[in-house]
From TrEMBL:
Main localization of the protein described in the UniProt heading: membrane
Protein's membrane topology: Multi-pass membrane protein
Keyword vocabulary terms for this entry: Cell membrane, Membrane, Transmembrane, Transmembrane helix
Subcellular location as annotated: Cell membrane
InterPro entries cross-referenced by the UniProt entry: ABC-2_transporter_component, ABC2_memb-like, Motility-assoc_ABC_perm_GldF
Transmembrane segments: 12-36, 56-73, 94-118, 138-157, 164-181, 218-236
Protein name per UniProt: Gliding motility-associated ABC transporter permease subunit GldF
Length: 241
């Protein structure tokens, strides 16, 4: 699995994909956090990074599928998937290596945003007037969100040979799991609305972003990740390509 991880991660870094993804993510979040007047921290007047944590999931919704779309689809189209599967590797090791490479690249895009935290920390009056617990919780939430989106993208890439189709399926899947249940819950009232919203990522992401790390939220995220990785394994085991 580590060999697959190194191979995939080095392939990302040796192609424009990694740099385009990280660049687009940083430019987009930077514009929302510092430039656009409706969302800029400088105009908002409060020392927090809520703009970043509200915007990043929607950017990830497109960028992570762009990372994952080639993982299996490209190998199927090129015919190298058969060679990979004849190696002394289990399906779980192949999936695990590819998944971790995509997940690590998504986390790499988050690292430079720590400069945003440092800047807001210094700009606060007094210095350090920022809710660090909520910030840490939000970063953990983003990391978990990236993990789920990577698993969905991997599954989408496993079910098709076409990278564009894999991208579109992953975007739709990520959108439905992230925001679809909230939209559906708005149709109902009372208990049904609450339980339906609990099925979506957005509710759990908001809870973690408050700095409250609840085991139920962690269980939800990890269950989604494991579920989509197992679904990917079932697709590989079917060998219908």
């Amino acid at each position: 699995m580590l060999a697959i991880l190194r191979k995939e991660f080095n392939a990302f870094l040796s192609s424009p994909v990694a740099y385009v993804v990280i660049g687009v993510f940083l430019v987009a979040t930077g514009l929302f956090v510092w430039v656009f007047p409706d969302s800029s921290v400088l105009d908002y007047g409060f020392a927090d990074l809520q703009t970043l944590f509200n915007t990043a999931p929607w950017i990830f919704l497109f960028l992570i599928p762009a990372i994952t779309m080639r993982t299996f689809a490209e190998e199927k189209k090129a015919g190298t998937i058969e060679l990979l599967l004849t190696r002394p590797l289990t399906d779980g090791q192949i999936i695990g290596g590819k998944y971790l490479a995509c997940f690590l690249l998504a986390l790499l895009a988050l690292v430079p945003t720590l400069l945003y935290y440092y800047s807001v920390y210094k700009l606060g009056n007094p210095v350090g007037n920022i809710d660090s617990a909520a910030t840490v919780g939000s970063y953990i939430g983003l990391a978990l969100l990236a993990g789920v989106f990577s698993a969905i993208g991997l599954f989408a890439s496993a079910i098709t040979r076409d990278q564009v189709i894999a991208f579109l399926v992953a975007v739709v899947g990520c959108f439905l799991v992230y925001s679809g249940f909230d939209s559906l819950a708005s149709v109902f009232e009372g208990s049904p609305a609450y339980y339906i919203s609990q099925l979506g990522i957005a509710t759990h992401y908001r809870d973690i972003s408050k700095g409250l790390i609840d085991s139920r939220d962690l269980t939800y995220f990890f269950s989604l990740i494991v579920g989509f990785l197992l679904a990917t394994r079932l697709v590989l085991q079917s060998r219908n390509w």
